[in-house]
Design brief:
Homodimer. Pathway: Amino-acid biosynthesis; L-histidine biosynthesis; L-histidine from 5-phospho-alpha-D-ribose 1-diphosphate: step 7/9. With 352 residues, the protein is of the alpha/beta class. It folds into two domains: 107 residues, Aspartate Aminotransferase, domain 1 (Alpha-Beta Complex); 219 residues, Aspartate Aminotransferase, domain 2. Helices cover 36% and strands 14% of the residues.
Length: 352
Amino acid sequence: MDGIRKITPYIPGAQPDFEDMIKLNTNENAYPPSPKVLEALEKADYRQLMRYPSLTNHELKEALAETYGLQTDQLIIGNGSDEILAFCFLAFFNSRKPVLFPGMTYGFYKVWADLFHVPYQEIPLQSDTFEIVPTDYFKENGGIIIANPNAPTGIELSKNDIRRILAENPDVVVVIDEAYCDYGDESVVDLIAEYHNLVVTHTFSKSRSLAGIRLGYAMGNAKLINVLEAVKSSFNPYSVDKLAEVVGTAAVEDQSYYQEKNALICQTRDRFSEELAKLGFQTLPSKTNFVLTTHPQADAADLFRYLESRHIFVRYFKSPAVLENYLRISIGTESEMATVIQVIQTYLQDIL
């Protein structure tokens, strides 16, 4: 029939439901939310659910503004960072010039570009290291979006390299998607004061253990955030519900809890990578809560199915072709990752 949109959707990781499973396929946090989140939920007045939620999310913005040294008008809150990133495509990428993003990165970028009819160009990564090459973004474009650290590689671009990209592109908006920045070396939020064209997005789904809430936010200069607010109000002004704001505020106010848990995840990640190396795996240097790994003598698809048969769920990408023999494995608890190593070791003994 005429007038029907044809779109290839983003395909998220599976959501299996087994009591005995080890779920390492969607980069969720290995640990539960802060106890202060539970306290906030217990104190929440359910009677207020008869009313629409806040249009301004002022309480949560205040907590975030204090955390990052910003003003509240430099923040926008959304229903997950996915919603915020979609708003960025609608708000900032409206020229006939292509938006630039890495050829291997978060798969939603290409989906949004297609959905909103935004021209784009995928910039190849360095072929031997899977790194982003900053100078590849020193050319005419209609905007730039980069996940940093990148997914699914886990590799982090330095703040100095991002500064170079910002300086070379003063007339377009550069969006830095920092979904995993709390597992890396540094954020670029402090560059907002220096670069008027920078927007940084964060999520509560990873380092704050709240993937089930759907909460995210963007930070930038007030003029850019105001444009995002206008897009949000044209789409769904009530996208952040009352409970999400309560929970999010409690999480932001307990930074020490999350810093402790995320440091533990990084330690587990590094130990897991070392154990994989002992088994012959080649693992990219990750600054996230996952690793991308390959074994020269093992078929990734076969190992994926083997792990799945034992209720260990990881992520296998059939495309791009360069990833066809890689697995992306989220980092769970110490005991979970020890089990994964044991199961992989058994698999290798059977095939080698």
